[in-house]
Amino acid sequence: MTTQNCPPSRPRTVLCALLLLWLCIQTLPAGENGGDVLVIYNSRSEESKGVAEHYAKLRKVPANQVLGFDLPTTDTISREDYLKQLQHPLAMKLVESKLWVMGDRDPSLPPLIYSKFRYAVTCYGVPFRVAQDPALKEGNMEKVVENLRHSGCSVDSQLSLLPWGDRAPWIGVVNNIFYGVTNGLYIHPTNGVLPVTRLDGPSATIAKGLVNKALEAETNGLWGRAYFDGRGLTNGPYALGDEWIRNTARVSRQLGFETVLDEQEALFAPGYPLSHIAFYAGWYSQDVSGAFAQPQIEFMPGAFAYHLHSFSAQFLRDASTRWVGPLLAKGATITLGCVDEPFLALTPDINTFFGRLVYFGNTFGEAAYVCQLALSWQTTAIGDPLYQPFGRKTTELEKELAARGNPLVAWGNLMEANQNIAAGADRATVMRFLQKSESRHSPILQEKVAEILIEQKRFNLSIETYEEVLKRTESRGQRLRVLFALGDLRATYGPDAKALDAYQAILKDYPDYPEKRLLYHKLIPIARRLGKKEDEKRYTQEFERLAPKIPAQK
User: Fold this and answer.
1) Residue 122 falls within a domain, yes or no?
2) How far lies 141's CA from each of 83, 138, 404, in Å?
3) How far apart are alpha carbons 30 and 22 in whole angstroms?
4) Continuous H helices in 116-238
5) What is the chain's mean pLDDT, rounded?
6) Is 214 part of a structural domain of the chain?
7) Helix H or strand E encompassing 402
8) Is the confidence at residue 302, as pLDDT, over 50?
9) Are 160 and 122 in contact (CB under 8 A)?
10) Does 116 map to a domain?
């Protein structure tokens, strides 16, 4: 990742006067539907067509808004082929079918004066990267900062400038005047930007599943825990990345999500007990690693997962390389990534994204584009643009879940408790609220109660509550977290035999646990105190056997 202090604008008339567009903003009715989406697929690929048809059926997209184009089946497309095989035939079809109406306008404004749709979706099989064209020359390109003086970009980011037609520039970046706006309705093709996201991933099945999970979350809500993995940076050229993640964690906590912020340099360790993941944002590793490299990850339906890295989407159809592909393969519903070096300041502003999606209730398509400082660049957004997990009031959704007897209602109670804690409520008041809740026996709420009891130094009651969680939870991640909590409490307050039981339960129930050395480190002193010499010897041998190997000196 390379830093870039300020994203230079490309000196060109097509965007210099974009502020004038505020005078001609098209207001849309609330509640968007499939008629607001254009679906694009690769007609050479049956799988690509299948993803398009699946999405169109579930979102009720009109048939004339599902278009196939004869495109390369590779990840990368040349600029020439992009223009000849996608941009030009697409624009022609839109005008011929009257989905778009062009008009004579001031050259500083996009020639598009009417659009039947607001978003575009590119499907699995459509190339996601435009190759650098070394022969391309554009006017005033010498004024572009040298590091940004190239034309390679993500297909979707360039396609977002389709309303400008051939006026859209290539070399460098285009400043996004909609960056940070709180009303996502301003982002519209007639105002110069077409929000483009894609249904993609390591397989067509995964790509299809993105809309299924989005619809499930719109029906039942996006609930769960939020995990943020910073690096502890407070100054220097890379501090911006940590600032984004730290601020996002702060907002998440205030909104009531059970939030974890790790500010150590290392990523969440392989054995970290992740569970019920609704949100994840972290950095900075080239390939998926740590806790997210484990075979099974507990993503909630509708979950957002993002890892900040220059090449996170370089191989987005690979389930084991970089980050975007693996996160989608493991169950994430929406994500963002970069197909090539973007420079830190030009990666998505994750704090803005989170606030718009969660607090302002924007669609994924809106949130994905208000968090980008620049277009015609490297970012690609994966997921259903219509996905709007926070489009309804939480209180209304809670009532609906309660009426259906859906156990997810417990997450609403937990959010309310956490909001009160963030507002400064005393723990006794929060405890009474949790214990009066109709979902008080939920393992989700019981774990919170146990944590508050620890703060109140009521350790015996906390232990009893954790044990109730073990009886009720169906989450392997939560069970692992609670077993560690029980083991640590018993190791401190006794009895040692119970601590031994908790740690041994992890060895038994999680035979592939990747950090067994940590467990043996905890077990050795307990076995010693209990006089279990044979166990102490065995644990010590295992602890030493699992020690990192030091390369021999030559």
Assistant:
1) yes
2) 20, 6, 60
3) 19
4) 155-159, 204-220
5) 92
6) no
7) helix 394-404
8) yes
9) no
10) yes
